[in-house]
Amino acid sequence: MDGFGPRPPQLRPGRALAHTPGASGSGSPHRSDGRTPQTPRGGRHTDLDGRPGTTPPVPGRPTFLLGLSALLLALITWQVAAHGPLARADERLSGTLVRPGRFSELLADLGNATVAVPVLAVVLVYVAVRDRRAGADRWWLPSTAAALLVAALPALIVPLKELIARPGPPVMGPGTGFYPSGHTATATIAYGTAALLLLPRLHATWARRTVLAASVTLNLAVAVGLIRRGYHWPLDVVASWCLGALLLTALAMFLSRSTGRSSAGTPSSRTGPS
C-alpha cells in the first residue's frame, strides 16, 4: 500500500508555482496566465519612480515630517531667543565660515523675491494651463494654493524677526531681525513648491530627477551664499528650512486630499469587479 495509497499531489520539476500557496509564504501575487489580477494589489498605482505604491500616500510619513520640523524649529528658536549653548556655538561656527566675496553674494541673491518668485510664477502658469487642457476638475487649485502660500510667507517671517530680534553677524553691523532668514524661506518655498507641483506631472524619470536636483541645488546655493557672505548665522538658515518643510508638507497634504476628493466625486469609466 505504500506505493499505491492516496497521498497529496506532488510538485513536478519546472512546474509553475503561481497558484501554490506555499511557494513564497502566502503565494505569488501574479497570475500564471499573464493576465492582470483583479485584486486591489494588482491595480495599485505607481509612485514618481514607476514603482508600485499606494494611493493615497502612506499614512504617518507627512505627520512625522511635520512633527520633526516643528520640534527642530521650536528648539532652535528657544536657543536663539535665550542665547543658549546652541546659539553660542552657532556664532563661533559662523566666524570660521564667513568669507565675504562677490560669488557668495551672487549665490545669496538667488533667494531674493525678485529672482525666486518669478521662477515659481512661470511654473504656476504652466501647471494651471496643463491641468486645464487635461480636463482636470480643479485645474486652478494647485497654482492658487501655492500662490497664496508665497503671499502669506511675510506674515509668518516678519513677526518672528521682530519677536526674536537677533543681531546679525559682525560684518552686518548694528541691527536686529536676522532670525529666521527671509531669503532662505523665500527660496525654500519658491523652489520647493515649483518642484512639488512639477514632479507629479513629469513622466520621464530623468526629468523628475533634474527638477528635484535643481530645487535642492538652488536652496543649498542660497544657504552657502548667505552664510559665507555673512548675511545670516547658520541657525537662521536652518530655522527657515524647518519652517519651509512645515509649509511644503502642509501644502502637499492639502493638495493630495483635495485631489482625492475630486477623484472620488468623478464617475469611474471602468466596469467589472474591482
Automatic annotation (TrEMBL):
TM segment ranges: 64-86, 106-127, 139-158, 178-199, 211-231, 237-255
One Pfam family named in its UniProt record: PAP2
Superkingdom of origin organism: Bacteria
Pro residues: bias regions: 1-11
Sorted UniProt keywords: Membrane, Transmembrane, Transmembrane helix
Claim: Cell wall biogenesis/degradation is one of the keywords in the record: no
Residue ranges constituting the Phosphatidic acid phosphatase type 2/haloperoxidase domain according to the UniProt record: 141-252
Transmembrane helix as UniProt keyword: yes
Positions of region (Disordered): 1-60
Protein name according to UniProt: Phosphatidic acid phosphatase type 2/haloperoxidase domain-containing protein
